[in-house]
Amino acid sequence: MVSPRVPDLDSLALLLEIARTGSLGRAAAAHGISQPAVSARVRTMEGLVGVPLVARTARGSTLTPAGVLVAGWARDVLAAAEVLDAGITSLRASDEQRLRVGASMTVAEHLLPRWLVRLAAERPLTEVSLEAMNSSQVALAVLAGRVDLGFVEGPDVPDGLADEVVAHDRLVVVVAPGHPWVRRRRVDAAELAATRLVQREPTSGTRGALEAALAAYAPMAAPVLELSTTSAVSGAAAAGAGPAVLSRLAVGDDLDRGRLVEVATTGVDLTRVLRAVWVPGRRPSPPARDLLRIATTPPVRSRR
């Protein structure tokens, strides 16, 4: 505990300035304050220490013998404070130049690249590491402190995390061009739930969102294939393994090229939200806050 007799750092710095310049007025100018304010600081210091520190004469101001002793000790205190300040600045600079992000496959592959380009333009010195994983793994990484900010998909916010919606997405039913559903053009929710689909793993946000949307028809049919990446699921569906339900963001190119065909659905809402997550009470770093702002700010579209 600091003794109540110890002056604050600014007052100690003023004492050294008086010793250097021999003038209360010049010390005041050096610190950007008025001379009466310096005089008040000196009186406060003398009250704390209990002895006179500055002798005022017509030719200027000098330190008393006690003031010389206090000034000598003050130099060591101020030097230590500068070391502390430099260390804190270094810690903050390191924190502001590193950002660890965990994201679900959909966000990592189709949204984060654009956001990170904007972040790099704002923070060119920030080093970003991105780990793509399923939503459950993202939540665990955020809770464990392995990443500063997470992005998840799925109907629910993982326990113990604060969240903010960053985007909306839509799941679509896709099949190979030769699949019988192509001729029908639509499938209802009950048939979709009863059909063996090519699926992601159970902890995937995409699968969780689909199961939540079809909860009225549970249990769903067992997957015909269970694969750990979106690209593997879309590839298997395109090869004819069976229908799949994936993010519209993830299969846009395949639909444009005719590799997959979208089949409309009835009786089920397949829209969903994508969220940023972090630990409440654990303040996100400045780069994490900037990335969250970018993710929740729609891009400016140029006018032609």
From TrEMBL:
<dbReference type="GO" id="GO:0000976">
    <property type="term" value="F:transcription cis-regulatory region binding"/>
</dbReference>
<feature type="domain" description="HTH lysR-type">
    <location>
        <begin position="7"/>
        <end position="64"/>
    </location>
</feature>
<keyword id="KW-0238">DNA-binding</keyword>
<dbReference type="GO" id="GO:0003700">
    <property type="term" value="F:DNA-binding transcription factor activity"/>
</dbReference>
<dbReference type="InterPro" id="IPR005119">
    <property type="entry name" value="LysR_subst-bd"/>
</dbReference>
<keyword id="KW-0805">Transcription regulation</keyword>
<dbReference type="InterPro" id="IPR036388">
    <property type="entry name" value="WH-like_DNA-bd_sf"/>
</dbReference>
<comment type="similarity">
    <text>Belongs to the LysR transcriptional regulatory family.</text>
</comment>
<keyword id="KW-0804">Transcription</keyword>
<dbReference type="Pfam" id="PF00126">
    <property type="entry name" value="HTH_1"/>
</dbReference>
<dbReference type="InterPro" id="IPR000847">
    <property type="entry name" value="LysR_HTH_N"/>
</dbReference>
<dbReference type="Pfam" id="PF03466">
    <property type="entry name" value="LysR_substrate"/>
</dbReference>
<protein>
    <submittedName>
        <fullName>Molybdate transport repressor ModE-like protein</fullName>
    </submittedName>
</protein>
<dbReference type="InterPro" id="IPR036390">
    <property type="entry name" value="WH_DNA-bd_sf"/>
</dbReference>
